[in-house]
Write a structure and sequence with these properties.
The protein is mainly β. It folds into 3 domains: 45 residues, no CATH class; 99 residues, Carboxypeptidase-like, regulatory domain (Immunoglobulin-like), CATH 2.60.40; 100 residues, Sandwich (Immunoglobulin-like), CATH 2.60.40. The protein contains 2 helices and 19 strands. The strands form 4 sheets. Strands 5, 6, 8, 9, 13, 15, 16, 18 and 19 form a 9-stranded mixed beta sheet that branches. The N and C termini lie far apart (51 Å).
């Protein structure tokens, strides 16, 4: 966080207190000195900020703190294809920063997006991380352009109940521990047939509360009690322009229903 502040700041305040006899300025005394400062002796100097390099860049956190060594993927979307193609890979640095350099301009009817995949693309499977996160789509990119992507946090959401493999009846209450470091999280509880991931079966989405509770009161029309299901959480981030990020929490849990 601190590194980001200094990198993006245009000005820095340097306190040049004129202390007689060249006395040293102790760190523990700095707050008292600022409160009693004589502003005639403050010196304002411009800070030469490091220019943003061409490419696509952003930051990754874990529980609100920068995380190093996370592999992020730059995906290319061809609007005629169902799934994006992994285009470039890079890793986060000590301050959580990542940078894709030498990114070619987007062809017509294509888009980029940055994503994180747990257990894939060079990342070991980590139960403390989200399963996936997708940053906002980049619809336009020219050669030499510098594009900042919204920061994101890979900390997982801990699912509480129902436990894996249990049989439930309606109404069903799903619970989890919300991520406190990302209050912008909006949760959706998903119940799906495993084949849904491959274009087969059904999925049911239910909006959930910010405090970690979702109640599914009654089955939807056509609900199949004999099918196998799994449940997990989808996290979405929104702003005035719509969605600016989303991902899946942890590992889906098997679930069975009975009338």
């Amino acid at each position: 966080m601190v590194q980001r502040f200094w990198r993006n700041s245009c000005w820095v305040l340097l306190v040049g207190m004129l202390l007689g006899g060249g006395a040293a300025l102790a760190i523990e005394d700095s707050i008292d000195l600022l409160q009693a400062a004589d502003f005639d002796h403050f010196v304002f100097l411009p800070l030469v900020s490091r220019p943003l390099l061409p490419g696509i860049h952003g930051y990754v956190n874990y529980l609100g703190e920068p995380i190093a060594g996370v592999t992020v993927t730059l995906f290319l979307h061809d609007m005629e294809s169902r799934y994006p193609t992994a285009f470039h890979y890079t890793q986060t640095q000590a301050d959580g920063d990542y940078h894709f350099a030498d990114v070619p301009p987007l062809p017509p009817f294509c888009a980029y997006h940055v994503g994180y995949q747990n257990g894939k693309s060079g990342n070991p499977l980590n139960p403390a991380h989200l399963m996936v996160w997708n940053a906002p789509t980049i619809l336009s990119y020219e050669a030499g352009q510098s594009v900042s992507v919204a920061d994101f946090d890979v900390a997982d959401v801990r699912q509480l109940s129902p436990a894996a493999g249990v049989t439930v009846t309606f109404p069903v209450t799903f619970t989890w521990e919300p991520r406190l470091v990302t209050p912008q999280d909006r949760y959706y509880c998903g119940v799906f047939m495993p084949g849904y991931m491959y274009g087969q079966g059904e999925v049911y989405w239910k909006p959930a509360s910010a405090d970690g509770v979702c109640v599914w009161e009654a089955p939807d029309a056509g609900f199949d009690y004999n099918a196998d299901y799994e449940w997990y959480l989808q996290i979405m981030w929104f702003d005035d322009g719509g969605v600016y990020g989303g991902g899946g929490a942890g590992f889906a849990r098997p679930l069975h229903f009975r009338p």
